[in-house]
Amino acid sequence: MTPYVENDQKIDTKLDAKVPPGPLAGKWDQYRFDLKLVNPANKKKFDIIVVGTGLAGASAAATLAELGYHVKNFCIQDSPRRAHSIAAQGGINAAKNYSNDGDSIWRLFYDTIKGGDFRAREANVYRLAQISNHIIDHCVAQGIPFARDYGGFLDNRSFGGAQVSRTFYAKGQTGQQLLLGAYSALMRQVASGMVKMFPRREMMELVVVDGRARGIVTRNLITGEIETYDGHAVVLATGGYGNVFNLSTNAMSSNVTASFRAYKKGAYFANPCFTQIHPTCIPVHGTFQSKLTLMSESLRNDGRVWVPKKPGDKRRAADIPESERDYYLENKYPSFGNLVPRDVASRNAKEQCDKGKGVGETGLAVYLDFEDAINRYGEDVVAGKYGNLFEMYEKITGENPYKTPMMIYPAVHYAMGGLWVDYNLMSTIDGLFVLGEANFSDHGANRLGASALMQGLADGYFIIPYTIGGYLAETTFSEVHAQNSDEFKKGVEAVNNRINRLLSVNGNRTVADFHRKLGLILWDHCGMSRNEEDLLKAKSMVNALKHEFWKDVYIPGIGKDLNQSLENAGRVADFLEFAELMITDALARKESCGCHFNTAFQTEENEARRDDENFCHVAAWEYAGEEKDPVFHKEPLEFENVKLSQRSYK
Amino acid sequence: MTTKTINLTLKVWRQNRGEKKGKLKTYFAKNISGDMSFLEMIDVVNEDLTKNREEPIAFDHDCREGICGMCGAVINGRAHGHEKETTLCQLHMRHFSDGDTIVIEPWRSRAFPIIKDLIVDRSALDRIIQSGGYISVNTGGAPDANAIPIAREVAETAFNAAACIGCGACVAACPNASAMLFVSAKISHLALLPQGRIEAAKRAKAMVRQMDQLGFGNCSNETECEAECPKGISIINIARLNREFLKAELC
Amino acid sequence: MNWFTAFLGSSIGKKLLMALTGLGFCFFLFIHLIGNLTLYGGKNFFLSYVEHLHALGPVIIIAECGLLLFAVIHVTTGALLFIENWRARPVGYVMKKNAGGRTLGSATMPYTGFLILTFITIHLLNVHFVDLSQQTIFQVLQNIFAFFPYVVFYTLAVIIVAIHVSHGFWSLFQTLGANHPKYMPFIHGLGICFSLIIALGFGFIPAYIRFIV
């Protein structure tokens, strides 16, 4: 079996990243000047469809409306304020250097590239670091109540293993505050009439006319009506695909459907095997668990991670003497200790549990112990820093982390992979832009803490408003109306067929049952560590499950109604196909990098061993048709400004 | 973590889409683990219903970690259930006993029409924010973030108000179905900050007017909202809203 | 006056009307109580107070008109709020429990209000709109309190007023925007004390007149 077909001819034409020439630091400025502008009077003639209202979607919709474009904004929930960006806890990075500890745009750029294990595009990441400062300025102007010091100035903390304090935060609810900021800007534009809001809509199909993205087909989640919307460009900000694992820290409605529909219409999917598994989550407790809860990474600043030295030791934590505890991160990585990057921390937790040293009822957990911190600073200080997290932990587990060590285990958290985009954030379909977690662009093979919020807002507030203008200004558009266009009709037909097909299976198993099975296959075979044998096995298992799904799924209710089972079925159907793509990508990347850890490629110290000679590229996959392996395309990554090095956190 | 399981009788409000009336239907939830959240318990019931070829209970939910504000139902007469400062998704079954009967109803308010079963239409809250729950700043023109120092205590008070998740429990719990706590949280958040003061008067007037038009009841200081708010938003914010409104109208 | 009527017609405007008129009634209750406390000083002391009070002439008439105006505003606004609040939840809960915010006073405001209105009407008919050419006001009191069911009625009414005030007092401060973590506990306490003083001060009058004088 050939896992992928290399098609070198297409590289030059389709995968042109359009990175502007010139020195790194000046690229964005020069490019913004070079981009064509849309005459202010003409902006109102353009309709832009924005799907998603998270940090990227809401900020894009609001900013585009401020510029004078007409925006149609869609979200799956009852209100744009519910988007899952709201759950981000830790903070948002910016290279302000307010702490005077040696931070700079260059350092933020370098840390992000290195943290991503050198699998991200230099120019994009540098631009992100540049924009980071403007984001903070704008958010403060919007009234985001960031934490402040006693002098009234913004407070920073060190986060996710960064050696400098560059993280701005609002208690443990930074994502919420930033999202509500973007949401308020969006609501202001809704009131002004520039944004028309469509809540409780799910994007079911992308409509491409003459090679350009010109609209979408949605399902009204209340009535079940299939609706069509046209526009001059489509912006997808639909988040990540972590829920392909069933259990993740993502919200229940986070899904891959919008991205996957676009993929099937010709947008390439980049690096789908890059999924971040976050080390500090509350462990799984039972089969009916619906979701995993993340505990902010900041806990590792003071908590010490350990397991019993002896495998199978079932004593209570308090009964295990100091000499029989293995502080494995501190022992293995003396200089970073408990603060190693997420992928390293997660992999080591799994390694310990695989050795039988895991704790808790399931044996799938490690301790995160605050005893030393409490002894050193007192319970008050610890409570001041982590009080809300401790409460959250106690609420969920019923255990008091001041008294017994927390139990944590890694969980799927963030998708670094996503639809391939160029420097303009445009996908391989003209006029289809992809922002935030939905695109692949900035985090390489591993995302650093507090960088997701930064990227979502950079894309939405400060990049798309320029680059979409460039596209609109230099494109001649044909007249397209959703009501009388063949492509829209075909789109509606496809959606209806799909829904009818789902409803007519009329089997015996629930959607949730299939989703759970899919999740387990991926978690075991395409999770924190992979190998070719497992991946091949998983591929055939997923394929078999997919066929079972279409034979045996049962969906109650009808299509023309509020039908949550049907919604989930559509999403799981796409996850089943997407999972195959993910595994294909993991098989093709015969190296280890960041979150993608293939056991065949590791250093003597069990660290990820990259193969920069053969795999210093973005893998972008083109849909080739049902039951066909996708076509591989490669965007070589060129590092002109940083030296590729082996990550070491010893 | 607990291993003991419990059995429960649920009386759940079922109402078809487009119908004005609904009724409580009885279901049984068996072998429920104490570690499950309330919504996971409903998941189990729904999966059983589906297997029996009945339509599952429709309910809103998303993040399941108490921050998105999407979930919510009145559980045995209490919005989000009886645990303090807890959303329904964070209410765990260990707080119930074997054999309990649990009545589950949707938020009830004229401003939140029922869509189906436990799902209500809360778009009225968005419309209130649209009327002025923002600072009018376009992207691009902001001064340096540290240009305006804000006292730490002020920032924290503003944060505490801004922590509102817009779930609507305040409206559901209020004997008058008033949205004053929700409105006051946004008014307070923005009025406390120097950036938000500029539009404070206009905002207070517009948001109160909009709230009044949407069919919410009036605040009669019963403080049930504060008692049920999953984020512990204080009614001190309502007093601040009253002040801001009076100032805006009379000055 | 467009802005003004719009302002008073808003939910907070109506609350403000309730609060200000309520504040007026609290003030009236306070004055009324002080006056009535002279009863405990004996018949002559009381009658001399009444004489001094009536000697104020037009001031009394203005005050009475003011009270009547306040009553009209308080009652009509209260009724309006009651109807609006009732309409705000057309379908009620099958099961509703208090979360701990509601008190006896707050939960019963419209009902205690209605009962107080009824009481005041009867009270005015009994002690205000009476012919004082043949009897002193003290005798009027003696007569009505001789009828035991009336004593019960009066005492209950006083308790209901106290319950109404127990919520109304702090609530009016909240409506006026005067809620501060430092002072609110004091205002709450003051409200409770005021209610108790009213209940005790007015409540013992029948007993005093019946059994002691």
How would you state the average pLDDT of chain B, rounded?
96
Helix content of chain B: 25-40%
Q: Indicate the proportion of strand residues of chain B.
A: 5-15%
Largest sheet of chain C: none
| Radius of gyration from the alpha-carbon trace of chain C, in angstroms | 19 Å
What is the average per-residue confidence, as pLDDT of chain C, rounded to a whole number?
94
Which spans of chain B have pLDDT < 50 for at least 5 consecutive residues? none
Order of helices and strands of chain B: EEHEEEEEHHHHHHHH
Task: State the CATH superfamily name of the largest domain in chain B.
Answer: Alpha-helical ferredoxin
Question: Care to count the β-strands of chain B?
Answer: 7
Coarse shape of chain B: elongated
- Terminal CA distance of chain B reads 58 Å
Order of helices and strands of chain C: HHHHHHHHHH
Seen as an oligomer or otherwise, the chain set is heterotrimer
Integer count of domains of chain C: 1
Reported for the largest beta sheet of chain B, the result is: 5 strands, mixed
Helical coverage of chain C, percent range: over 70%
Lateral arrangement of strands in the main beta sheet of chain B = 2-1-5-3-4
Structural overview:
The complex is a heterotrimer of chains A (650), B (251) and C (213). With 650 residues, chain A is of the alpha+beta class. Among the domains of chain A are: 278-413, Flavocytochrome C3, Chain A, domain 1 (Alpha-Beta Complex); 503-636, Fumarate reductase/succinate dehydrogenase flavoprotein-like, C-terminal domain (Methane Monooxygenase Hydroxylase, Chain G, domain 1). Helices cover 37% and strands 15% of the residues of chain A. Chain A has 18 helices and 21 strands. Chain A has helices at residues 9-14, 27-34, 40-43, 55-67, 105-115, 122-142, 174-192, 257-264, 328-332, 342-354, 371-377, 379-397, 452-473, 486-505, 511-525, 532-552, 564-588, 612-615; strands at residues 5-6, 47-51, 70-74, 92-93, 157-158, 165-168, 195-198, 201-209, 212-220, 226-230, 233-236, 269-270, 275-281, 304-308, 325-326, 366-369, 406-415, 418-419, 432-434, 617-622, 631-636. In chain A, the strands form five sheets. Chain A has a five-stranded mixed sheet. Chain A has a five-stranded parallel sheet with strand order 7-3-2-11-19. In chain A, helix 6 packs across helix 13. The two termini of chain A are 40 Å apart. Chain B folds into two domains: 5-105, Beta-grasp domain (Ubiquitin-like (UB roll)), CATH 3.10.20.30; 122-250, Fumarate Reductase Iron-sulfur Protein, Chain B, domain 2 (Orthogonal Bundle), CATH 1.10.1060.10. In chain B, helix 2 packs antiparallel against helix 7 (200-213), helix 5 (180-192) crosses helix 9 and helix 7 packs across helix 9. The longest helix of chain B has 15 residues, at 236-250. In chain B, 63% of the residues are buried. The model of chain B has no long low-confidence stretch (mean pLDDT 96). Chain C is mainly α and 213 residues long. Chain C has one domain (2-212): 3 helical TM bundles of succinate and fumarate reductases. The radius of gyration of chain C is 19 Å and the shape is globular. The N and C termini of chain C lie far apart (55 Å). Chains A and B meet through helix 4, helix 6, helix 7, helix 12 and helix 13 of A and helix 1, helix 2 and helix 3 of B.
